[in-house]
Amino acid sequence: MKEVSDLSKVVDLGPRLDPTSERVGQLLNAVRGIANRRLQQWVGNAFEHVDDALFDLAEKAENNAAQMHYFDGMRDVRKRRPLVERNFLAAINRELGELTHPKSPSPATTSVGIGGNAELTLVADNELEESLAITSMISKNDSRLARDLFAVNQRLSVICGGHKIDDASNPVAPAILSQAFRQALRELTADMRVKLIIYKLFDRYVLSSLEELYQEINDELIEAGVLPQLHHQVVRTPAASSASLSKSVDDDAVVRAVAGAESGDIPNDLLQTLHALFSARRAPTSAGSASGYAGAVGGSIGSGRALSTGPLPSAHELLGALSVLQNQIASAGPLPQAATGSDRDAADLSREVQQLKSQLLNQIGALRGERPSHVATIDEDTIDLVGMLFEFILEDRNLPVQMQVLLARLQIPYLKAAILDRKMFAHRQHPARRLLDGLAEQAKGWSDESDRDRRLYEKVKVIVEKLLHEFDDDLSIFERLLVDLQQFHDINKRRSELAEQRVAESTRGREKLELARRRAAREIVDRIGQHQLPPLVHGILARAWANHLVLTLLRHGEASNEFRSALHFIDDLIASTRPIKSAEDRHLLRQTLPNIERALRLGLANVAFQEQDVERLLGQLHAYYRQQLGEAGDDDDAASVTEDAAMLSMPDTIQPMARQDAGRENSRDPEPVMVPLDSPEWQQVQALQPGTWLEFSHIDQAMARAKLSWISPMTGRYLFVNRRGLKVADYAPEELAVLLADGKATVLAANALFDRAMSSIVTRLSQPENPIAPDA
Q: Does residue 61 contact residue 67 with C-beta atoms inside 8 Å?
């Protein structure tokens, strides 16, 4: 990142030390000891001030909920502080110990590890401010500490055998210290507002004191004879300047970021940081201008041609040129009547997005008679930011391609809105921003199948056309269209909620019926056990009485007297089939029979048996019991009847379930593929909440978008519906985890389009890529 400006002052790093020698070990141990002692003291100082800072914020909190956040944070910090400090110091010690064994960074370590200069990893929307705080701390201190850190890097390179140590690999550089602290701070469960305060204190009490650490390390190594005559003058190359954001955020940036998070707005620090990131990524041109967002999104003005160097275009000229381009798009013809957007359409629009700046300058040139070479920095940043926003839309997998194609046509109206009102990117409640978020949210659940009448597609298309045809400079149009979209959403939401409710109730009813059937079957099978029942009695239990048990469970529940009485009948009926061995057995059976008959009549009536069928069945049962009691009668041969026509008409609840259970026990088929309970996919399933949208790639051999509507409290199954509230599928948790692991299901982002885009833009601009350079 840094280089020596005067080559005559470059110090030869040889002779280099053997990194395996005892001398190197002693020197590194000395450096490690110095770093450990200083960092332990400074981190302790930072944490000593956390209570006071959080208490002050709690006193100033606007409501009780915010106040409790800070008090909860104080308790969490007190509890977990030792672990955070220990993990932080251990990470730095480990990095120092590995200096003599350089390793190439893996994708995991470069994205979320402790290495990497000014690199951001945004794993969630609420970490945007955290990433900005990290970036700002690194950049500010990199610039301030450049001279002393350069000397430490050079001397460490010598004792590590000539392996280059720079800001991105030096364990005591601001970059690695900040990222190591970020990783250690993940032990805290406190919310982001508390963490941002801790970052501010880390910057104030640790990073701001690093001159002392570097001075002590340099003195130690100079005394050991390592580059004692090193002289240097550090300058920054354009690439190095990508991390230089010291002017973008002042000393109280983190506190204002916290306030912005609470108010629902993106803090001004974000806009300042974005401006600094854009400036840092642009290599200076011969005309003193910047080239656009080529390094970020692939387009540029192109300064190889002879360009006029007239006055910078005013905002009025920009708006006029944009209106001309907007009219050209609007007059090109109506948007497609059907949802026919394709990947090719999206690719064509992506090129248009990237070429807009050049088209804009050409149009200004046509209006004023000479083509300007560039625009004012603030306008260029706005153009680039809007361009990257719409590039994000065309790459956002949360949006179907057809909807991407529609929304991407709004680039010029939104660029005009951003020039008219710079606060559009700073305030989440800005009507233009809310309209785009609302359109994207509606589009997220769209599919051909769920929008056969094209009602949603046509609504989005009409709003896009109105903006293209009617928006000039009156920003109130965004508010009017937002109200229109909200009314459309409310009407369709009521319809879909009714449909969802019916689907959930139907599913709940089927599940209750299935569980009741299984419970009834289990109770009967368990009570029969090893008893060999006469076919007539077995038929009564397996058919009529099983259905009576199911209805009793559904109507009264398993804790009811009715259900207990129904179970008691099973025991009595089974007991009545035992052989009679004594007069006492005969007497007991005769006493039991009236109760059995009375209970059976009630049960058969409950399952809608016809009276004649009840009498026929009881007649067969009477004949059986007379035979049991050894009594003769006209119906002696009736006992041989095993099935009654009425009995045959009843579904057998016991046998199918018994066969299923036996099948599960005896099956030799391989077990279904399971996802480990500690896997990310299983954790993702457990974290799903109703209202979350997923995309499935295995349903009807096509991509289907479905919303998690309901999680069964009985079976735990996940019910998914489309945007009309109609059922798409339902899965057990383990089935859904397998789909996620196989890539056949993907969870779509729940946060707003604008927030996702801003996070993505900051991440891309903060990557250590080549600076933006003009085309040749």
A: yes
How confident is the model at residue 733, as a pLDDT?
93
Distance (Å, rounded) from C-alpha 153 to C-alpha 218?
10
Q: What mean pLDDT value characterizes the chain?
A: 79
What is the distance between the alpha carbons of residues 642 and 625, in angstroms, rounded to a whole number?
14
Burial 612-623 (b: 16+ CB within 10 A, else e): ebbebbeebbbb
Q: Has this prediction a pTM greater than 0.70?
A: no
Contact residues for 649 (Cβ-Cβ < 8 A; gap 6+): none
Output phi, psi for 265, to 5 deg: -105, 150
Question: Which residues are CB-neighbours of 667 under 8 A, at least 6 positions away?
Answer: none
- DSSP annotation string for 400-414: -HHHHHHHHTTHHHH
Q: What is the mean pLDDT of residues 596-611?
A: 91
Asked whether the beta carbons of 371 and 731 are under 8 A apart, the reply is no
303/213: higher pLDDT: 213
| Domain-wise residue ranges, the chain | 2-275, 312-474, 507-662, 672-751
Q: Model confidence over 474-494: pLDDT tens digits?
A: 999 999 999 999 999 999 888
Q: Among 295-304, 422-431, 486-495, name the most confident range.
A: 486-495
H helices of 607-653, in order, are 611-629, 645-648
Of 157-161, 356-360, 446-450, 772-776, the range with the lowest mean pLDDT is 772-776
Q: Other C-beta atoms within 10 Å of 60: how many? A: 11
For residue 574, the Cα-to-chain-centroid distance in whole angstroms is: 57
**In terms of Cα–Cα distance, which of 755, 75, 682 is closest to 440?**
755
**DSSP string covering 336-394:** PSS----HHHHHHHHHHHHHHHHHHHHHHHHHHSS-BS---HHHHHHHHHHHHHHHHHH
Q: For residue 572, what pLDDT is reported?
A: 92
Q: Is the peptide bond before 594 cis (omega within 30 degrees of 0)?
A: no
Which candidate, 700, 753, 755, places its Cα nearest to that of 722? 700
> What stretch of H or E contains 680?
helix 680-687
User: Please, which residues have CB within 8 angstroms of residue 474's CB and are 6 or more apart in sequence?
Assistant: none
The amino acid occupying position 655 is: Q
